[in-house]
């Protein structure tokens, strides 16, 4: 890293914070909170838009094609995003990434009037690039800034703030379309509301500090790395495809976005009317807040042993996953693609008991999503502590995750039966649990400062640099 000056490389910074307040601007708590707010405004609003099914359109074709383009480019730039983050730093990476969300919401505003897919699909492809950058930066910040023994807590805090965006975003279409109970696309005001929030998030990203400027309460820094180079990052990214730890995470990575298509389009988008879809999303993303806090507490506080906490967390999520997908199967056997929309009366939130069962199922899907992804992020955070390494790990996770998402949107576009989609989601999710357990047993150590391979080398190098900086402020 190079042109950011002495503060960016850590030169001249003290090895202890100026005060003990956790609300210091350069504390991990404040910085993780800020990245949560950025994601509240951008991907949080995107989630609310996607959660309505078809991007709020009656015909899901344009949204499905846009999401295919989105997740295809996301798969590429998710993997490259960690390297780009290490070169550009958080502010530039996040600002560019966030700006593409505004364009995507705007493309649906355009589609409302002209019904031309091309702009929506191109905007989806550009959003995939931006999302890859944003989530690689987010992952590096969320997994490397917190103290070693509180990563689950910080992950759950981020997830709660981020998903509040989905809650507020779900209220926008619910309120804007309250009097429209028949099948229809959402109105212009809904898309404009999303764009305003996304613009706020884009400028808020400029408040995120470089990791070398973030100091924990014990005086340790999140990292002391210098800006990387393109050649170094390309080599390190290619090595990830031969990294056995990353390979064990591939099924979990694929599963973690694959189920969105089924849940958004074929549960929320098929069973409920327009205004109720927005209300459902309020509770879907609200459930994520509950789920993330619950699993974060288990993976930080349940046992003294870090490995034991990880195993218990995975087992709990695995059991809950089996129960929820089992409930989904019971509901799915009662309707099919051929029954929609002619033989199903769309449910409204005022329908009482008829509404209650499908609503609880959709709520449970949101609960599972947050617990599953928070669990995966905790595992990634347990593999290393350095921002440079974790940015690549999380980028790889998001890239593979997005490749799965691209496939899922096309699976739905090709009219694969709802039942087969559910079975595929259940199988992918279930298969990932034993592999994550193996990863915990083989790669996660109980010592907070005990790292492997390159992680240990970076930590030693970083400590040496910090010591030199403190003793001789004028030298690296």
UniProtKB/TrEMBL annotation:
The gene is LOC107818554. It is a multi-pass membrane protein. The chain crosses the membrane at residues 29-49, 69-87, 94-111, 117-137, 158-178, 190-209, 246-262, 282-303, 310-330, 359-383, 423-444. Its main location: membrane. It is found in: Membrane. Coiled coil: none annotated. Keywords: Membrane, Transmembrane, Transmembrane helix. It comes from Nicotiana tabacum (Common tobacco). The keyword Acetylation does not apply. Belongs to the major facilitator superfamily. Phosphate:H(+) symporter (TC 2.A.1.9) family. This is UNC93-like protein 1. GO terms for cellular component: membrane.
């Amino acid at each position: 890293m190079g042109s950011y000056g002495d503060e960016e490389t850590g030169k001249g910074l003290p090895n202890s914070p100026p005060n003990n307040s956790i609300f210091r601007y350069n504390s991990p708590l404040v910085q993780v909170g800020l990245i949560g707010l950025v994601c509240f405004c951008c991907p949080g609003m995107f989630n609310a838009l996607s959660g309505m099914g078809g991007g709020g359109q009656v015909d899901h074709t344009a949204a499905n094609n846009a999401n295919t383009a989105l997740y295809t480019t996301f798969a590429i730039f998710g993997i490259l995003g960690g390297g780009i983050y290490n070169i550009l730093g958080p502010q530039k990476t996040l600002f560019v990434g966030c700006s593409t969300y505004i364009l995507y919401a705007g493309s649906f505003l355009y589609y409302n009037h002209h019904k031309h897919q091309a702009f929506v699909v191109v905007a989806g492809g550009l959003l995939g690039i931006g999302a890859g950058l944003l989530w690689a930066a987010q992952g590096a910040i969320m997994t490397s800034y917190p103290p070693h023994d509180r990563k689950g807590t910080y992950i759950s805090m981020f997830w709660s703030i981020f998903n509040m965006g989905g809650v507020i975003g779900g209220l926008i279409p619910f309120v804007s379309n309250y009097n429209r109970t028949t099948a229809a696309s959402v109105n212009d005001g809904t898309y404009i509301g999303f764009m305003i929030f996304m613009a706020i998030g884009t400028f808020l990203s400029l408040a995120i500090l470089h990791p070398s400027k973030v100091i924990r309460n014990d005086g340790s820094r999140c990292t002391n790395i210098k800006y990387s180079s393109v050649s170094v990052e390309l080599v390190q990214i290619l090595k990830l495809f031969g990294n056995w730890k990353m390979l064990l995470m591939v099924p979990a990575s694929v599963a973690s976005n694959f189920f969105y298509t089924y849940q958004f389009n074929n549960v929320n988008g098929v069973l409920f009317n327009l205004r109720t879809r927005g209300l459902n999303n309020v509770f879907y993303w609200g459930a994520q807040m509950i789920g993330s806090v619950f699993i974060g507490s288990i993976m930080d506080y349940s046992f003294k042993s870090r490995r034991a906490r990880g195993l218990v967390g995975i087992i709990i999520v695995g059991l809950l996953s089996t129960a929820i997908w089992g409930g989904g199967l019971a509901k799915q056997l009662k309707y099919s693609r051929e029954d929609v929309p002619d033989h199903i009366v769309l449910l409204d939130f005022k329908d009482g008991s008829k509404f209650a069962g499908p609503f609880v199922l959709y709520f449970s899907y949101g609960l599972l999503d947050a617990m599953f992804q928070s669990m995966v992020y905790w595992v990634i955070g347990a593999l290393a502590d350095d921002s440079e390494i974790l940015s690549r790990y999380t980028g790889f996770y998001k890239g593979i995750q997005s490749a799965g998402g691209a496939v899922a949107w096309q699976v739905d576009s090709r009219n694969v039966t709802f039942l087969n989609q559910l079975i595929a989601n259940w199988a992918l999710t279930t298969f990932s649990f034993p592999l994550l357990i193996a990863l915990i047993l083989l790669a996660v150590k109980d010592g907070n400062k005990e790292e492997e391979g390159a992680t240990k080398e970076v930590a030693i190098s970083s400590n040496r640099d910090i010591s030199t900086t403190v003793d001789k402020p004028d030298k690296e």
